[in-house]
Every structure is written in structure tokens, then in C-alpha cells.
Amino acid sequence: MTAPKPLIAGNWKMNGLRASLAEARAIAEGARTAKGRVAICPPALLIPLMCEMLSGTNVLVGGQDAHWEAAGAFTGDVSAQMLKDAGAQLVILGHSERRAAYRETDAIVARKVQAALAAGLEPIVCVGETLDQRNAGDALAVVTEQVRASLPPELAGQAFSVAYEPVWAIGTGLTPTTAEIEQMHRQVRATLTTMFGAASETVPILYGGSVKPPNAAGILHAAEVGGALVGGASLKAEDFLGIVNAL
Ligand code: PEP
Asked: Which of 6, 38, 48, 146 fits 31 for a cystine, CB–CB 3.0-4.6 Å?
């Protein structure tokens, strides 16, 4: 089976005004010779502008969340269909910040994944344990259950990726050891194979959590790591490109 192209996706979170589009332009310029796929997931309001600006480049644009319904009385929410209509190609779902701050359960994430697929978006589904869960020796079990319950059967044969993001590594400067990353990624791969069969060998398993230019090569070349989901270091073109170029 051909190895899938790795994906480096930047999650801008609630950061970025129109002036920040200059960073996206610089990322597209520097990513012209990227060895993998590159994506930026800006705040929803920037998506149409960014899609227009990046059209013709090899940088994809994604959303950071989407509602499970296509439309309706959900004040303040954005649907997958709306993201698609705005030009997005991917969408991050089940990020730990949404699981924690908005009480998103695996079941909710699974419904969002179904909505994303129905809208024609490629989901990046996030999973990851808290520090307490890791310290209790439960990390593998917790993440395995998140993968099982957050990924609906409709994903079979579809383009998607899973992002393993230990909650304690996000925005903290802490990262698991290479051995810990490889152990978890192998576990996620085994779970995907059980759920979706051998075809899921091409599903990229991204690592996320304090990926920066100095640690990127070590992480990206670890076994079963198919790319990275990058928060803080995706906001500046120089830092993000330092990670893209570590592929
Ligand atoms: C994230 O929020 O998905 C993330 C990985 O953040 P950071 O790179 O800042 O740790």
C-alpha cells in the first residue's frame, strides 16, 4: 500500500484578524516545495478570505469545529455545510479545548464527523488523554475508547485523519517521549485497523501538542506519525514553515 502523504495542519484557534492573512501568504510561499500536505485552520470568519488568497497554492484551508446539523436554530454556531460553502476542505473536530470547554462527548464528535462527511469535508478527529489519566496508567485505554466512539462507521473508505493530542502537551511546551508517541500511535493504528480494516493503513495519524521547529523532525519521523496538528507555532510563518520543512 502506498504511504499516505503526511499532513501538517495549523490550528490558529481564536487568533487572527484580516492582517494575519499576510502570514498565510508567507506560509503558502514557503510551502511550495513541501513534502506533505499543508493546511491552515483559521477562525471561521477568515476562511472565505483565506480561501480566495490561497487559491492556486498547495495550502489547504480548514475549519476548527462544525455543528452536527446543516442548519437551524443554533445561535452562534457554524455548520459543516457553511464551512464547505466558504471554501474549506478540512475541519478539526473533537479538539480537547472543545471537549473540555463545551462538554463535547465522543458521541457528539461522531455526529459532527458524520455532518462533515455529508458536507464533503475531510475531518481531522482529535483524541488525547489528560495528565491525570496518563499518570493513572490509563492513557492507552482512554485514547482507544475515544477513537472507537468518536469515529463513526461512515468514515470507512473516506479521507480523514486522527490527531493524537495529549491534553497536557497542548500549549505547555511539554511533549511525550518519542517512545510514548510511538506506543500511542501504534495503538491508534491497531484500533483503526480493527474498526475499518487494512484500508485504514493510509489514514494519517497526526501528533499534536507543543510541536515547534526544534522538536519537529524527531516527532515527524517517529513510527506511525503521519504529520502534525500545530497550535501556537502555526501563527508565525517562520515557525510553521520550520515544522513543514522538517518533513
Ligand atoms: C493544538 O491546540 O491543537 C495544539 C497542538 O496546540 P500547541 O501546538 O500550541 O500545543
From this structure: 38
pLDDT tens digits for range 204-222: 999 999 999 999 999 999 9
Is 65 within 8 Å of 98 (Cβ atoms)?
Answer: yes
Is 213 part of any domain? yes
Smallest CA separation from ligand 1 atom 1, residue: 231
Does residue 98 lie in a domain region?
A: no
Give the separation between CA 140 and CA 196, rounded to whole angstroms: 19
Q: How far is CA 245 from the centre of its chain?
A: 18
Cβ-contact 88, 62 below 8 angstroms? yes
Q: Nearest to residue 209, comparing CAs of 133, 122, 95, 72?
A: 95
Residue 180 placed within a domain:
yes
CB-based contact 160:130 (threshold 8 Å): no
Give me the number of domains the chain comprises: 1
CA of 215 to the centre of ligand 1 (A): 14
Catalytic residues, by residue number, are: 95, 165
Contacts 24+ apart (CB under 8 A), 196-202: 196/155, 196/156, 197/156, 198/1, 199/156, 199/157, 201/1, 202/1, 202/2, 202/3, 202/4
Q: Which domain holds residue 200?
A: 153-226
pTM of whole model > 0.85?
yes
Residue 129 is assigned to a structural domain of this protein: no
